[in-house]
User: What shape does this take?
Amino acid sequence: MRGWIVLALVGLAAQLVDGSLGMAYGVTSTTLLVAAGTSPAVASASVHLAEIGTTLASGASHWRFGNVDWKIVGRLAVPGAVGAFLGATALSHLSTESAGPYVAGVLLALGVYVGVRFTTGSLVRRPGRVRSRFLVPVGLFGGFLDASGGGGWGPVATPALLGSGRVEPRKVVGSVDTSEFVVAVAASLGFLLGLGTAGLDLAVVSALLVGGVLAAPVAAWVVRYLPARVLGAAVGGIIVVTNARTLLRGLDVEATAGVVVYPVLLLLWVGAVVYAVRRHRREKAVGADAGWGPAEGGDEDPERELEAARS
Assistant: This one.
């Protein structure tokens, strides 16, 4: 029973991060299961089965708070599902560990870009819409990486959409989390066809599911009021730190380089978040228009916007 509660708390914490920042549920949960001795394929399968419930709850919560752009969801979810099914099928038959350092390098670069852009750059939104020719490859790659690596949908889709500069951060997170339901279903089907039910522990799945479902409404509320600059700085830092760890391990230099790299990255991350908070306060004080609308850093009339979202 104690182990079940611990897993439920992990699912709760992972969903709080995932639902408010658009990533980390799969990475956090899969890492724990693999560390406990579960094979990568079974760990990823267990997490994706739990994600069917957590992403459904998360998507409903984000919709309730007006954080979802359904046009983006439709064009992102379908290629994401295709990629996830292929990734689950591949992982069921082979290991993708050798590709880890290369993927981590790409994601680390995306994290640096997002962190720098939202911490120091202009947040004035560029006119236009996110096109399918951009969303389709993002969905395919993100879905494949998510299923084959035990996580990756959020780290790929969230920074890609944030970096486009055409979507509000809260709607990026809400749309990515909502589309992940379709990705989780497709990945689970791929794992069930490739692995069957061998090795799956329903107690583990249920614990992660319960914790994630409880956290989903809270996370959807948090992202609605989190300033864009702070959100971008936090997301960028998470991507950089997480993938720097994967990269160092893949290159087998974590023991020597980690003692220097990790403290430096953490200091830079904390500094970026602090700077983002201060800059947001200065812009708010002088009435600067950051281009995302009042909902990104504290609504001028949250009750009115909530009523509009309901209708």
Summary: The radius of gyration is 19 Å.
